[in-house]
């Protein structure tokens, strides 16, 4: 199934040109069963990447445009009274999908953003005292515009912590943008994508992440990085949830690279994208100086 996974990666590279490293990290996030936060200027391909992932993996996909008037019920669903049966009937919201694109999440109110907390952590939602499980797999891709844009507000730290990865696509290289302008439109590129992995195959790959070996020496190195953040005043300390996220992301990155063990380089590759938004919630996705500082100042014994 790794062959199909690499075909997914090749297909995504045909749609999102010149962003192979970000695409690999996005797939890594999905295999690690995490959630992905994409921060960038409008028009950089964030929505296209989410749609392309859903198409290539055969997952159900819903998009919600987050606005200041969006209510929690608009997201998770409502119990609606049916006059015919004289009973309440549950109308599921868009969160009941396998890939949920929360577009411009930082334009919604904190109350609406908090409606995602249980869904992202527990893979379930509680409505009127009843708990309803979400589809499997469940993957949130949220986009946000930089905070200097009008109408945006910073995500609460508890919300940021639910995202395993934060990435920025950035501007394409000149050659990639030339190719984008010269050939197909975005819609025609997306229409060329075909399903390469079904849901069951994806679940097998996600379970395969658990079988990737991490040595005691590597775990000690990861702990040194995490504990270093807890003794500094210029950054927020990384929690046990963060350390678990780094290790699982590193295992997924090893799996994509067709290895059954984690290396220190795997940890170093994923660490800035997993840790930076936790170390400094006010930072931008392009800024990784705190995580790089920890990597530089923590000896790697491997």
Features:
five-stranded parallel beta sheet, 302 residues, Rossmann fold, 13 helices, 47% helix, Helicase, Ruva Protein, domain 3, alpha/beta, two-stranded antiparallel sheet
Order of helices and strands: HHEHEHEEEHEEEHEHHHHHHH
Rounded to an integer, what's the Rg over CA atoms?
A: 20 Å
Count every helix, treating DSSP H or I runs of 4 or more residues as helices. 13
* Approximate shape: globular
- What share of residues is helical? 40-55%
State the end-to-end distance.
30 Å
Beta-sheet strand percentage? 5-15%
CATH topology of the largest domain: the name is Rossmann fold
How many domains would you count in the coordinates?
2
- Indicate the CATH class of the largest domain: Alpha Beta
How does the major sheet shape up?
A: 5 strands, parallel
Number-wise, the strands total 9
Segments where pLDDT lies below 50 for 5+ residues? none
Question: Which architecture of the largest domain per CATH?
Answer: 3-Layer(aba) Sandwich
Backbone structural class: alpha/beta
Provide the residue-averaged pLDDT.
86
Order of neighbouring strands in the sheet with most strands: 2-5-8-1-9
Q: State the fourth-level CATH superfamily of the largest domain.
A: P-loop containing nucleotide triphosphate hydrolases
């Amino acid at each position: 199934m790794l062959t199909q996974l690499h075909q997914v990666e090749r297909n995504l590279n045909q749609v999102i040109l010149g962003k192979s490293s970000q695409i690999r990290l996005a797939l890594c996030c999905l295999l690690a069963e995490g959630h992905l936060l994409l921060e960038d200027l409008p028009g950089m391909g964030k929505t296209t990447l989410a749609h392309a992932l859903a198409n290539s993996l055969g997952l159900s996909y819903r998009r919600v445009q987050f606005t200041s008037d969006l209510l929690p019920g608009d997201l998770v669903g409502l119990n609606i009274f049916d006059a015919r049966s004289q009973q309440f009937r549950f109308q599921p919201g868009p969160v009941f999908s396998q890939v949920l694109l929360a577009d411009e999440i930082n334009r919604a109110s904190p109350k609406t953003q908090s409606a995602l907390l249980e869904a992202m952590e527990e893979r379930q939602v509680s409505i009127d005292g009843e708990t309803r499980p979400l589809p499997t797999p469940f993957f949130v891709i949220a986009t946000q515009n930089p905070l200097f844009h009008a109408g945006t507000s910073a995500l609460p730290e508890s919300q940021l912590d639910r995202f395993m990865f934060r990435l920025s696509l950035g501007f394409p290289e000149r050659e990639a943008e030339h190719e984008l302008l010269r050939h197909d439109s975005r819609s025609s590129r997306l229409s060329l994508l075909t399903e390469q992995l079904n849901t069951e195959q994806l679940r097998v790959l996600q379970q395969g992440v658990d079988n990737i070996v991490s040595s005691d020496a590597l775990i000690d190195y990861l702990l040194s990085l995490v504990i270093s953040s807890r003794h500094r005043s210029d950054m927020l300390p990384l929690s046990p949830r963060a350390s678990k996220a780094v290790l699982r992301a590193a295992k997924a990155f090893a799996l994509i690279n067709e290895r059954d063990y984690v290396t220190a380089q795997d940890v170093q590759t994923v660490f800035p994208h997993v840790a930076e938004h936790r170390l400094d919630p006010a930072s931008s996705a392009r800024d990784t100086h705190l995580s790089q500082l920890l990597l530089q100042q923590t000896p790697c014994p491997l």
